[in-house]
Amino acid sequence: MAKLLVKQVRSKINCPLDQKRGLEALGLRKMGQIVEHDSNPTILGMINKVKHLVSVEETK
């Protein structure tokens, strides 16, 4: 299964509450933080919701 590196690149200030909760569910608490997740539909859906706030890299 592929791994995803998710990095928060933009601030969550002035974002809707569901997007703030999406970032927290991904494990992102502050700018520049990087987390690793397995690629599955749940995680991909959360990333899609906040795609303008994060950058995603696929690793093996």
From TrEMBL:
GO BP, sorted A to Z: translation
One Gene Ontology term of the molecular function aspect: structural constituent of ribosome
InterPro entries (alphabetical): Ribo_uL30_ferredoxin-like_sf, Ribosomal_uL30_bac-type, Ribosomal_uL30_ferredoxin-like
Domain of life: Bacteria
Domain Large ribosomal subunit protein uL30-like ferredoxin-like fold: residue ranges: 4-54
UniProt keyword terms in alphabetical order: Ribonucleoprotein, Ribosomal protein
Record's keyword annotation contains Protein transport: no
GO CC field: cytosolic large ribosomal subunit
Keyword match Glycoprotein: no
Family per similarity comment: Belongs to the universal ribosomal protein uL30 family.
Oligomeric form and interacting partners: Part of the 50S ribosomal subunit.
Listed name of the protein: Large ribosomal subunit protein uL30
Organism this protein belongs to: Flavobacterium hiemivividum
Gene: rpmD
